[in-house]
Write a structure and sequence with these properties.
Radius of gyration: 28 Å
CATH superfamily of the largest domain: Tandem AAA-ATPase domain
Largest sheet: 7 strands, parallel
Strand order of the largest sheet: 8-9-7-10-11-6-12
CATH architecture of the largest domain: 3-Layer(aba) Sandwich
CATH class of the largest domain: Alpha Beta
Mean pLDDT: 86
Structural class: alpha/beta
Length: 632
């Protein structure tokens, strides 16, 4: 008789009597078993043994193969069946709830608890999302940015804490989420938490925090994906300590979508040690249906809702462009486990997109733009003689040069990484204009910006000014400061809040100062790459000025949401202003951003559509080049 054993996450089959037929052995090889000896010992080491073991046993029964289970295998199977029964029950509850069946779900009791114990009044859509998470225990909130996901999760945490099921929240996310979590905790739960930020800093001191006695533990822990990667052993120890009952929250969970990625693996390694789990992201399926695989493996690490066979089916349907079949499978296996609030559910006042301000370039700006554009046209005629990969790199760099022209011509003096093609090397007079530009004129956009900011300041309006190039950001900040305005800058080099930083101004401190109506800081200058995610400005700022734009629609949409969100935009209208140079790349960028944004919002209103909020920026540059300059 065959003995099936489990040891160290490995299935071991002892088939010493050689009773397996060749076709049966082939089936085992297909599942990944490896023959370890001539005496019929087969082993399978895999994270997916929870899906392979039941299939193996069913196959042996079907083939009438006699087998017995070791004590450890029987114990594992009993545990697996218990977890799967729990998951099946949760899936049934989640599906009934999402279909509108509130009977016997406990919604009334949960709502009563929230009204009596949560100081912050939740919106209806937040309450429904919160109860869904409470109902399914380990769930996902895929609601659109600005819908109040953090407040919903904190309400569930407080309910579980009152039941003695959890006693702390452990949040993994980008550094930009640290400030909002602390602010939202106090606003939602009405108390200031004992917070530990375990990111960066002295790694020895940081890791010591994981070994503090239960009586000295904090209530809110915040760490980054990169730090978690370095601290996996310590985090496992922390989560398994006696007295630790952690609610694990993976914020901006699209960071773990990459299958086999180091950040994803780090999260997968620790997830099973938490009592409850939650993932948050407004962009769950950026490029492929496979993007959700890791997320739901994290939520149910010991009984994956999407098993290996189902994953392969989804991949095949997607490769064959059979989207309907892929969506049908996903709806069945994970639909009950996530909740999504759509933009249309938020009851926000529609924002105002003011008609773009179409400006004429000043003398030297126009001269430089035309010179660069003409040189690109000349170069493009010879591109067919070059290697295609080289051409693609050149195209992206040329588009950047055009964007620099409509942002701040002084940027043309700086070199671009891996780009040696000189658009102006044979025109010494042009090169001189670039080097002397600041003494020759101010950009027309900067002059108009000053007038627009002055108008808004007279109306006591705070304003955020978006631009993409660091040189432009610094130019705007310096100019407005010299005009007597108080403004501050957030861009990629601005430090984020970490335990090792206590004197430098951080993004969070600047943001908080900007949000304070009495601070005197009424102008924030920022680039979407640094300030487009996790930071909310909507409670005191209702005007955003786009000094320049890129083709990256992800950053564009995220920046729009900074001033159009739940908790302010129900009564205050968001206003967007765009500065555009006449007859330039500016018009092409804005037109295509608007077109893509409209398409994205339509798709976001549906479940399971693949919509890239990474937004193919590189491909967009190439497409833009062909629109503007022709060619294949």
């Amino acid at each position: 008789m065959i003995l099936i054993d489990i040891m160290n996450n490995t299935i071991i089959i002892n088939e010493s009597s050689s009773c397996l037929k060749p076709n049966q052995i082939s089936q085992m090889y297909f599942w990944g078993f490896v023959k370890e000896s001539e005496h019929g010992l087969y082993q399978l080491s895999s994270r997916s043994i929870e899906s392979i073991l039941p299939k193996l046993l069913n196959y042996f029964d079907k083939e009438e193969i006699s087998f017995s289970l070791s004590d450890s295998c029987q114990e594992y199977l009993t545990k697996l069946n218990r977890i799967r029964d729990a998951l099946k029950k949760v899936i049934d509850l989640g599906m009934k709830y999402k279909n509108g069946d509130f009977k016997n779900t406990g919604f009334t009791e949960f709502s009563s608890f929230v009204r009596s114990n949560i100081p912050r009044s939740l919106k209806d859509h937040q309450l429904k999302a919160a109860f869904h998470l409470y109902l399914v225990q380990n769930g996902a909130n895929f609601s659109v940015p600005g819908s109040g996901k953090t407040a919903a999760v904190l309400s569930v945490y407080e309910k579980l804490k009152s039941e003695g099921k959890v006693n702390l929240i452990y949040v993994v996310g980008p550094p930009a989420c640290f400030g909002p979590w602390q602010v939202e905790f106090e606003l939602t739960l009405g108390r200031t938490p004992n917070v530990k930020i375990l990111a960066g800093g002295d790694h020895i001191q940081r890791k010591l925090e994981y070994y503090r006695p239960t009586t000295q533990k904090a209530e809110l822990y915040l760490t980054t994906y990169q730090t978690l990667l370095n601290d996996q052993i310590e985090v496992k120890t922390f989560l398994t300590q006696s007295g630790t009952k952690a609610f694990l929250v993976i914020d901006e969970a699209h960071y773990i979508k990459q299958l086999g990625g180091s950040w994803a693996d780090a999260v997968l390694q620790i997830s099973e040690y938490a009592q409850y789990r939650c993932i948050l992201t407004g962009t769950p399926i950026p490029r492929s249906y496979t993007d959700v695989f890791n997320m739901f493996d994290v939520l149910w690490p010991n009984s994956k809702p999407i098993d290996e066979v189902t994953k392969k089916k989804i991949e095949i349907h997607q490769e064959n462009n059979d989207i309907a079949s892929a969506k049908k499978i996903l709806k069945e296996v994970i639909g009950p486990l996530f909740y999504r609030v759509r933009k249309s559910d938020l009851n926000l006042i529609p924002p105002v997109f003011h008609p773009p301000y179409i400006l004429s370039m000043n003398k030297y700006e126009r001269l430089l733009y035309d010179a660069v554009e003409n040189k690109i046209r000349d170069y493009s005629k010879q591109d067919y003689l070059r290697n295609i990969d080289i051409v693609r790199k050149l195209i992206r760099a040329r588009i950047i040069r055009l964007r620099q022209c409509v942002s701040y011509p002084g940027l043309l003096a700086t070199a671009l990484k891996e780009y040696e093609e000189s658009l102006l090397e044979d025109k010494s007079d042009i090169s001189q204009i670039i080097s002397d530009y600041d003494s020759l004129e101010q950009p027309a956009k900067l002059q108009f910006l000053t007038k627009l900011v002055t108008k808004l300041q007279k109306q006591n309006q705070k304003v955020v000014i978006w631009a993409h190039f660091i040189g432009t950001l610094k130019l705007i900040t310096k100019h407005l400061t010299q005009k007597g305005y108080m403004c501050k800058l957030i861009y990629g080099e601005t430090p984020t809040e970490q335990t090792s930083i206590d004197e430098e101004e951080t993004r969070e401190k600047i943001r908080n100062e900007f949000m304070d109506l009495e601070s005197g800081l009424n102008i924030l200058v920022a680039n979407p790459a640094a300030c487009g995610e996790s930071i909310s400005l909507h409670k005191t700022c209702y005007h955003a000025i786009y000094y320049d734009l890129s083709y990256n629609c992800a950053q564009y949409l995220q920046s729009l949401d900074r001033i159009h969100r739940v908790g302010g935009s129900e009564i205050n209208q968001a206003n967007y202003h765009f500065l555009q140079y006449k007859n330039t790349i500016d018009q092409d960028i804005l037109f295509n951003l608007d077109k893509k944004a409209s398409r994205m919002y339509e798709l976001i209103e549906e479940d399971y559509n693949i919509y890239s909020l990474d937004m193919f920026e590189e491909d967009e540059d190439i497409e833009a080049y062909h629109r503007l300059f022709g060619g294949e």
